């Protein structure tokens, strides 16, 4: 066994409580090294020798490692444990906090000292079933022409610059709720809607007012109410890293300089404040003059923003916040934020915008999940670019899950694109195998959507993806929603509806574990099994433009049982090895 | 290079801010694998290709890994970085968040998104110079006979049971401050002094009153004041995991059962509350009826205990808290505790009692340091039991440091024994090389103390160790302090005084980096270098009963320079290799 590869820490994500008396433990080992992974565990005050056994399961692997998991049950909530690893070479090693040794005593123990109720990472239960639809309100639907900004373009006009307006608004979203209901989503995440000077509204002028181009408090309340009646939740976008330069406090600083009582609300390097040609204050990114960074350490700023967080939950009844540039705001602020949000509504969800490894925010004290860019990048590379094979795809997904607890993984916002990226179908059109017309971007987009909708975590559909909208990076990924049925891709829309229905019908797709099933690198065929309460469903996808024949075993079934492929309705009889044909860019769902 | 051994996470302890513009990064690799470890870093918003270089240093190693460190400076406080590793085999690998690859792009980047002032782990500056003396007040000195409990034993009486009293008190400590001043320590940590029914007082009756056997508020104030005038700080013991069953709230629950308004302050499994023969409520450990566990999730309990924390800082002017059974109280409570304590006195220190890997408490949001049992166990095994050699000793120390940030390592309470363990000299007497009289427990104890006083972190001297007191586990490690000069070991006392002086004289011993210098497993000779602001001192210890000759290089000196051994005053001329004789259980201090 390769000692250097072994990793366990009695802390998230390698040990985390899943309930008051249940501790999930995870161990990482060199891939293929371990035949068995067992644990001896007991109350930490009991004397040695009376420990309970637990056999761990190999739940995932990547290019370097296998991951083993198991759940320790403890009456006293105080756990000590030691791993016994049996190698494929017949060797054994004890692994505890003191070290790795053939001698148990030298290994010592890991200690999870106490499962404290208030430290348990709790996410709202509904999150497990969440299917999210992201709306960029200015571009979704113009429901109220009276609030259109000057020079509003016609909906069908070609988008030519960053700053244009199309007149989309909250009434528009309200009007289109039946469409969303029919699509089958149950959560709407809207990019910012508070007063601001831009179409994207990430430069907040007033956190307490809805931008009049979008509506007002009544419109929001009506939207939330109507959405709720359809079982749809609403998530707002909290831009707390920075405000707009039109925010009252920054305006005061511009006016009064050092004398402003809001001078410390920002990071001003020197007075007087200069905006052009180069800011002398911290901003979002570097020197974005219209987006001064907020000093979230300042008690008044904290109090102000936390009141905002509470206000919209209590006043408008929203179901959570997505946090813009969440990784550049301090952890301390987010901890306070979580307390306020969960106090205002324990069922509210908190999703951070973090494009990278987010474990520092996902231990249960800050966010529930993040916008899952690790997921997005894996899907982009596999389905759109086709620059990685089945094995790399699986490796990347494994790593993206194994750095987090189950709770965080369940609360991930699994995107394939959004308002900050090119649209997925455009990525498929511009890259991948084959030349132009052979690329079959629609098929690959459908395959990616299939995967997204059968993977753990909340799938997030960026408005218009479901009707085949394309678009390069901002601003072209923010084109007006296509409502003209002649312009919509009906096949894509049907696909989304079918897949959403499937996810809603099979609890294992939303709540189940995830297990890699088939990794046929040569055929570019990948399979995975989702299991929940003893019910398993196996998915098989072919990410190649060629029909493939693969040999698979329905490992969750018994020989002779019948298994149904749900897309076609075709039945198979389970043999030790089944030969399956799968269409080019095809997907199959096997249910026993 | 062994990919499986590589480890970096853009989070504590692998990445942590040491100042507003400085990020320390640490990388773990297979021992002996890496020739060079470089970093390319830049502001995370700048385009690729303009990155700055940083060469990392191999700062430590254990049996499996080398550890490399460097400090990234960032004007914008937003850092992205990627490692370039050059193997001893001439190979190279890029290592970023996406993976490990010969291809830079495939490696991606690590992101430390923003160094937020409020997330920086700050410890009080004085902690770097702290030398702590632990007092068990009932057994230190009887300064006031009038407050003696009934049946108080004579100071010289033999200790025969757990429950006896000797009459030690706060006046006693006050009286003996000149002794402590002469010894050279500058921090006193007292085990609990609040009203309680036992001699150890870990079962608090009243968190707001000093036990009358020890004194009162005035005595404490006088003690703090007098100590401060001598440059000595005072740390109290916070027993917040549980209270005594005589605590008013628990008494109320015993009396009124479920009707008590304090019923939720505890974890009562069912009413009526039963204490004997087996409790039906959670306690410290299991079924310790006199120590009911406090429900620190309850807002009233939180508020009560946090007021206690603030009260003693503000009222008595104490300089910090040591937290009893800190690992069984929730992180959420400790975060609130830190805010209150640091608000009341930013210079107050917080030390948790955690006997195992404590990284979950040491990211800067909870404790400054912990009672460093990993250190204690390494010293116990090496110096007392002599069950491990030089290399294992070094490995254990490395691991104990590399799981924490610099700040936590500086704030460690480095004990070799305490009121909960056998005394170190007793461990030396009962084990180690040689038979009985050959064991030289005093020499080995002195060697351990030498090491403790030349190692990073706050050395903690358990009362009486400095005069050679012995004692098996509780209660025998809690014998009355030996004040009779004829009974004190003068040699040991001189040793402590000399070593404390040395630590105070050479800032590198208290504030410097730590580097392993000599690992002579065969000779049982170990060397290490401490460096601060360009000043280095090298220590050499011989943990064997035989004079040893070792070949060493004064790697921080130039050939031909003079180096002085500070214990003997002997001078050496630096050669490429110097042959040094070191006495049985000897220690040497080389200063250039």
In short:
2 copies of one chain form a homodimer. By secondary structure, the first copy, chain A, is of the alpha+beta class.
Describe the structure.
2 copies of one chain form a homodimer. With 592 residues, the first copy, chain A, is α+β, with helices and mostly antiparallel strands. Chain A is 24% helix and 25% strand. In chain A, the strands form 6 sheets. Chain A has an 8-stranded parallel beta sheet. In chain A, strands 3, 4, 7, 8, 9 and 10 form a 6-stranded antiparallel beta sheet that branches. The first copy, chain A, has a 6-stranded antiparallel beta sheet with strand order 21-22-23-28-25-26. Chain A is globular. Chain A starts with 14 loop residues before the first strand and ends with a strand. Chains A and B meet through helix 7 of A and helix 7 of B.
Number of helices of chain A: 14
Low-confidence runs of at least 5 consecutive residues of chain A: none
Query: Biggest sheet of chain A: strands, sense, closure?
Result: 8 strands, parallel
Name the quaternary structure: homodimer
The average pLDDT of chain A is: 97
Rg of chain A, rounded, reads: 26 Å
Q: Which structural class should the secondary elements of chain A be placed in?
A: alpha+beta
Strand content of chain A: 25-35%
């Amino acid at each position: 066994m390769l000692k250097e590869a072994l990793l366990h820490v009695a802390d998230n994500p390698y040990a985390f409580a899943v309930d008051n008396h249940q501790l999930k433990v995870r161990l990482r080992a060199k891939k293929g090294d371990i035949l068995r992974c067992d644990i001896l565990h007991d109350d930490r005050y009991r004397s040695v020798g009376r420990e309970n056994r637990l056999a761990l399961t190999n739940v995932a692997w990547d290019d370097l490692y296998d991951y083993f998991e198991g759940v320790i049950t403890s009456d006293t909530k105080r756990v000590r444990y030691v791993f016994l690893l049996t190698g494929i070479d017949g060797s054994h090693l004890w692994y505890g906090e003191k070290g790795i040794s053939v001698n148990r005593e030298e290994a010592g123990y890991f200690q999870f000292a106490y499962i404290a109720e208030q430290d348990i990472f709790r996410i709202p239960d509904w999150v497990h079933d969440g299917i999210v639809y992201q709306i960029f309100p200015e571009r979704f639907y113009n429901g109220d022409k009276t609030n259109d900004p000057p020079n509003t373009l016609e909906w069908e006009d070609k988008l030519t610059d960053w700053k244009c307006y199309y007149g989309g608004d909250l009434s528009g979203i309200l009007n289109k709720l039946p469409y969303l209901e029919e699509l089958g989503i149950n959560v709407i995440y809207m990019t910012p809607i508070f007063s601001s000077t831009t179409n994207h509204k990430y430069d907040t002028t007033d956190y307490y007012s809805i931008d009049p181009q979008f509506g007002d408090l009544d419109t929001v309340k009506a939207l939330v109410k109507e959405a709720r009646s359809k079982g749809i939740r609403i998530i707002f976008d909290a831009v707390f890293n920075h405000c707009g330069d039109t925010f009252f406090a920054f305006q005061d600083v511009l006016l009064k300089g050092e004398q402003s009582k809001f001078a410390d609300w920002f990071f001003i390097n020197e007075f007087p404040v200069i905006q052009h040609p180069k800011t002398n204050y911290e901003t979002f990114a570097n020197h974005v003059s219209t987006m001064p960074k907020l000093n979230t350490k300042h008690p008044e700023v904290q109090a102000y923003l936390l009141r905002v967080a509470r206000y919209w939950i209590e006043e408008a009844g929203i179901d959570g916040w997505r946090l813009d540039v969440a990784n550049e705001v301090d952890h301390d602020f987010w901890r306070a934020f979580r307390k306020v949000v969960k106090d205002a509504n324990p069922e509210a969800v908190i999703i951070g915008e973090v494009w990278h490894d987010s474990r520092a925010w996902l231990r249960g004290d800050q966010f529930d999940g993040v916008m899952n860019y690790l997921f997005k990048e894996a899907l982009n590379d596999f389905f759109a670019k086709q620059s990685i094979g089945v094995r790399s795809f699986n490796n990347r997904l494994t790593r993206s899950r194994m750095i987090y607890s189950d709770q965080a993984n369940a609360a991930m916002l699994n995107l394939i694109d959004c308002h900050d990226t090119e649209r997925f179908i455009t990525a498929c059109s511009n890259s991948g195998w084959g030349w132009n017309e052979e690329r079959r971007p629609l098929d690959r987009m459908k395959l990616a959507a299939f995967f997204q909708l059968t993977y753990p975590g909340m799938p997030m559909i960026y408005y218009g993806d479901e009707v085949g909208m394309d678009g390069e990076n901002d601003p072209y990924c923010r084109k007006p929603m296509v409502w003209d049925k002649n312009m919509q891709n009906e096949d894509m829309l049907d696909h989304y509806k079918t897949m959403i229905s499937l996810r809603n019908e099979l609890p294992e797709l939303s709540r189940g574990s995830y297990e890699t099933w088939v990794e046929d690198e040569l055929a570019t065929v990948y399979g995975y099994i989702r299991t929940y309460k003893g019910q398993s469903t196996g998915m098989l996808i072919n990410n190649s433009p060629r029909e493939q024949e693969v040999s698979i075993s329905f490992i969750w079934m018994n020989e002779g049982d019948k298994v149904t492929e749900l897309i076609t309705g075709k039945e198979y009889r389970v043999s030790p090895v089944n030969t399956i044909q799968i269409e080019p860019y095809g997907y199959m769902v096997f249910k026993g």
